[in-house]
Q: What sequence folds into this?
């Protein structure tokens, strides 16, 4: 089921508010907010080296029933599923 633009924005705000990306060993401080798992955010423009991943411990991971990791480098859940 597709979300309306309003629903998409609300979900994006929820993802960013609960995001723990900035506690990740791979995190690079460059002004990004995180939430890379969400389809309208996508990959980081700063992070390009895998140094560890905390995605599985994020509250958003469980809440959105996510299954992948390294969203910052590999793209959102949707992008990773489409790549398989």
A:
């Amino acid at each position: 089921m597709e979300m309306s633009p309003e629903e998409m924005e609300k979900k994006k705000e929820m993802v960013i508010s609960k995001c723990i990306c900035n506690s990740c060993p791979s995190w690079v401080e460059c002004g990004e907010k995180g939430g890379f798992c969400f389809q309208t955010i996508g990959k980081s423009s700063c992070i390009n080296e895998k140094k560890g991943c905390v995605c599985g411990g994020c509250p958003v991971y469980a809440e959105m029933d996510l299954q992948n990791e390294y969203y910052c480098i590999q793209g959102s859940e949707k992008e990773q599923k489409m790549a398989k």
Notes: The CA atoms of residues 17 and 40 lie 15 Å apart. The two ends are 21 Å apart (CA to CA). The mean pLDDT is 95. The chain has one domain: 5-83.
